[in-house]
C-alpha cells in the first residue's frame, strides 16, 4: 500500500543507499594484491621498501641464493601470510634450509600456499602504522602514527599515539610516505599504512590495512577527529563536490597541529593452560 509515509521513507533511504553503493564502488586496493606487487607499486611511488626477493622462482636453491645476495639475517615470509604465520628468521646460511622448510609447512597448512618471499631482517624493529584517509577527488591526508611494537605472537597488545621518541622530521617523512602510498592506489576512506622502523629511525613499507582498524580511537583522541563520521561523509561528499580538506580541523588543514597529548590502547590476551 502506497502512502505519503512510504514515499517519505523512500526519499530518505535513497540518498543513503546511493552513498553506500558509491562507497563500496570506491574501494581501490585489490584484495588479491600480493606483497610482491604491492611493494613494487610502493617503490615506484617513492615509498621506502625493504630489500628483498619477491620473484616467481620458488625453488629452494633460488631462495637460498637470494638470501645470500640480500645478506643475513633474512626474514622468510609466506606470500599470502598474515598474523605472523609462515614467518621465520634465518640469521645464518647454515639454518636457512631448516627455517625455509618450517615456514613452508606452516604456510601450506594455514593458507594452502607455500610460496615465500625473502627480505632483509630488520633487527630490533619498531612496528609503526600511519592512519591515512582519502577522498574521491585524489586528496589524502595522514593523521599521524601509532606505535604498536609491543606484541605477543605477532598480535598487537599496546597501541600508542603519537609514537614515542619519533622526531618531528621523521614523523613528517612517515606521514608523507603514507600519503604517497594511499595516492598510488587512489585510496578512498580510512586506511592504515604499516611500516617497520629500525633503531636509526629508517622506515620501510610492510603492508596496508584497507579498513578502519579497531585501534582508530587512539588516533581520534590526539587529533580531535571522528573517523567513523568521516567514513560516512566521504560517501555523501562524493555527490557534493566537497573535498576532504573541508573535513579537517583547522590545525590539521594548516599543517600546524601541535601534538601535546598522547593516547594508549591496551589489549588483553587470554591463554588457556593445557591439561589443567
Question: Can you walk me through this structure?
Answer:
It is a single chain. The chain has 276 residues and is of the alpha+beta class. It folds into two domains: 51-120, Dna Ligase, domain 1 (2-Layer Sandwich); 126-266, D-amino Acid Aminotransferase, Chain A, domain 1. It has helices at residues 4-25, 35-44, 60-70, 96-111, 168-184, 216-223, 227-237, 250-253, and strands at residues 52-53, 74-78, 87-90, 116-120, 126-134, 140-147, 151-152, 155-156, 158-161, 189-197, 203-209, 263-266. The strands form four sheets. A four-stranded antiparallel beta sheet has the order 1-4-2-3, with helices on one face. It has a four-stranded antiparallel beta sheet with strand order 6-5-10-11, with helices on both faces. A two-stranded antiparallel ribbon has the order 7-8. A hairpin with a 5-residue loop joins β5 (126-134) and β6 (140-147). α1 (4-25) crosses α7 (227-237). The model is unreliable at 1-28 (pLDDT under 50). This is Methylcrotonoyl-CoA carboxylase 1.
Provide the descriptors you would attach to this structure in a database record.
single chain; about 280 residues; alpha+beta; Dna Ligase, domain 1; D-amino Acid Aminotransferase, Chain A, domain 1; four-stranded antiparallel beta sheet; 8 helices; about 35% helix; globular; disordered N terminus; ATP_grasp_subdomain_1; CPAse_ATP-bd
Helices and strands, with pairings:
Layout: H1 4-25, H2 35-44, E1 52-53, H3 60-70, E2 74-78, E3 87-90, H4 96-111, E4 116-120, E5 126-134, E6 140-147, E7 151-152, E8 155-156, E9 158-161, H5 168-184, E10 189-197, E11 203-209, H6 216-223, H7 227-237, H8 250-253, E12 263-266
Antiparallel strand pairs: 1-4, 2-3, 2-4, 5-6, 5-10, 7-8, 9-12, 10-11
Helix pairs in contact: 1-7
Amino acid at each position: 500500500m502506497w502512502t505519503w509515509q512510504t514515499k517519505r521513507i523512500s526519499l530518505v533511504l535513497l540518498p543513503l543507499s546511493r552513498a553506500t553503493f558509491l562507497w563500496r564502488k570506491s574501494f581501490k586496493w585489490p584484495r588479491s594484491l600480493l606483497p610482491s606487487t604491492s611493494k613494487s607499486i610502493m617503490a615506484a611511488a617513492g615509498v621506502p621498501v625493504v630489500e628483498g626477493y619477491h620473484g616467481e622462482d620458488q625453488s629452494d636453491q633460488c631462495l637460498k641464493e637470494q638470501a645470500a645476495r640480500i645478506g643475513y639475517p633474512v626474514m622468510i615470509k609466506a606470500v599470502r601470510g598474515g598474523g605472523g604465520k609462515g614467518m621465520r628468521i634465518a640469521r645464518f646460511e647454515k639454518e636457512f634450509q631448516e627455517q625455509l622448510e618450517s615456514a613452508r609447512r606452516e604456510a601450506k597448512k594455514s593458507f594452502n600456499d607455500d610460496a615465500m618471499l625473502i627480505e632483509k631482517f630488520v633487527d630490533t624493529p619498531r612496528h609503526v602504522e600511519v592512519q591515512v584517509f582519502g577522498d574521491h577527488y585524489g586528496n589524502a591526508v595522514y593523521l599521524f602514527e601509532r606505535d604498536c611494537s609491543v606484541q605477543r605472537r605477532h598480535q598487537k597488545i599496546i597501541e600508542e599515539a603519537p609514537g614515542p621518541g619519533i622526531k618531528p622530521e621523521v614523523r613528517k617523512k612517515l606521514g608523507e610516505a603514507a600519503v604517497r602510498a594511499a595516492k598510488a592506489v587512489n585510496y578512498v576512506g580510512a586506511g592504515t599504512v604499516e611500516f617497520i622502523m629500525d633503531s636509526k629511525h629508517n622506515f620501510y613499507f610492510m603492508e596496508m590495512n584497507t579498513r578502519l582498524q579497531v585501534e582508530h580511537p587512539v588516533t581520534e583522541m590526539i587529533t580531535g577527529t571522528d573517523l567513523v563520521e568521516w567514513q560516512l561523509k566521504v560517501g555523501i561528499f562524493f555527490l557534493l563536490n566537497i573535498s576532504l580538506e573541508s573535513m579537517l580541523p583547522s590545525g590539521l588543514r594548516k599543517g600546524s597541529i601541535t601534538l601535546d597529548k598522547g593516547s594508549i590502547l591496551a589489549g588483553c590476551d587470554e591463554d588457556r593452560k593445557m591439561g589443567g
